[in-house]
User: What shape does this take?
Amino acid sequence: MMKKLIQLLIFLGFGVFFIWFSVKDLKPEDVQIIKESVTGILNTKSLLFIFVSIICGAIAHYFRAIRNILMIDPLGYKVRKTTSFYAVMTCYLANLAIPRLGEVLRCTFLQRYDNVPFQKSFGTVVVERVIDLLIFAVLFVLIIFLNQELLADLVINKEKETTLGIWINEKWVWAWGMKYLILSVTLGLVVGLLIFRYIKKIRQPSKKQSKIIGKIKNIIVGLWQGLISIKDLKHPYLFIIYTIGIWVFYYLGTLLCFQAFDFLQHFGPMPAFIVLVVGAIGFMIAQGGLGAYPLIVAGILVLYNVDYAQGLAAGWIGWSAQTIMILLVGFASLILASFLKTENRRVSENG
Assistant: This one.
């Protein structure tokens, strides 16, 4: 519990820092621009765009839910679409409170309602996160390739003092990044060594092998089965289609949100694409993207000659819309799940 509390405080601390960093240099006229930007969307047309943007976000989460069903199916378990969707939304809801808690609750949810062993479903969640990370990396490289001149101007041109440009060029940011990288590598090596030692003990069990070691073996075996479930997909093409669907609807949600603002409607598809991909970093480094996502959005839009205050307002509204969607649909999922009947959905004994 203490570990979760410390993790929560660290991520919230990042969020508070980014909020402070984004508003510390605002002038009274900037605050006025933000107020005007917010009140500017209080009309039927703009609110409709934001509402449809929220719907797109929910559809993306639904694609994620049915994609996970395909990954669990080779393990010999059938998960209902409603159960999987409720589990996904509960996951995102929990992650707003405590980082990575959602993944645990998601697997607990599937075990509770469709009797999928926790360790097996957790293995599929790990694979899912790896796939998302790989796709993110590919899209990030694609953005760099398609926007070389824009990025060169951001990093090299010191006369164009954009908030994001100054932030990236600060030496302490790079120093912090290196420290974080070194810490991550060290932690990875330590965890890898511990896992290796456990596996070695499991493969060479002694007569005095304790029940704890036996339970650890079952967990590792189940986790491994979940991890390799992707190689036995019965419908790989559906898996690809659902994966594309996730990112397409994420993008549509971002693009439609742009249409709610008069100062963003004239842009083509590229700025929204950059905001989608680079903005995802905000959710990686701060609790629920708090503070970091709006700051990144503002920095990107400044590169397209949008006023920083306007970009900040757009970032906060976009973040708020998706957060409200997660809160509403997440709590609704918790309520509706209470009406689900627990089923034994095991269809084979091969898992």
About this structure: The chain has one domain: 30-337. Residues 158-164, 170-176, 347-351 have pLDDT under 50 and may be disordered.
